[in-house]
Give the backbone structure.
Amino acid sequence: MPTKPYVIDEMISAKSIAARVEDLCREITEEFAATDKLIVVGLLRGSFVFIADLVRELDLPIEVDFLEASSYGDGMQSSREVRILKDLRGAIEGRDVLVVEDIVDTGHTLHHVMSLLRSRNPARLKSIALLDKPDRREVDMKADWTGFEIPDEFVVGYGIDFAQRNRNLPFIGKVRFT
Ligand code: IMP
Ligand code: MG
């Protein structure tokens, strides 16, 4: 539970997110149009709302799997060491894979996950992030598709938490301590 009192200021509305998801899914559907072997991999837990909206807009035969990597713990600082807490259920060798992340911040998490999955020899490996904070980058990493670039603010909502809270907000908001 967060310890200091804070308020949440809306940054990206539910409506803007839905419109962006629609656009992204049109591009992704085109990119993977010729394949019937796509696995959409959600990074738990922050991507659970995003992946739910994404897969319902994809006009493709897909499978869904999940992977959990450690990140912030309960604080606001990224840990540079990435650990896999829960691995995929299925094999991805020879398959097309789309990794779905909530935020690319320092870049360590997505970088680590993509290297790990690449080592399992998928036919194609792509990534999508709802949010990108380029100012915070520590490793050279960019998702193949990005929903929104945002400034260096701590955000919550649409699946994204602050110490496990606020994941259920339908919009993205920034945390402001009061
Ligand atoms: P990275 O390894 O620093 O790129 O961190 C990525 C992970 O940190 C994301 O998957 C999020 O779970 C978490 N994260 C980064 N920025 C925020 C934020 O503003 N709010 C909540 N979680 C964040
Ligand atoms: Mg995360």
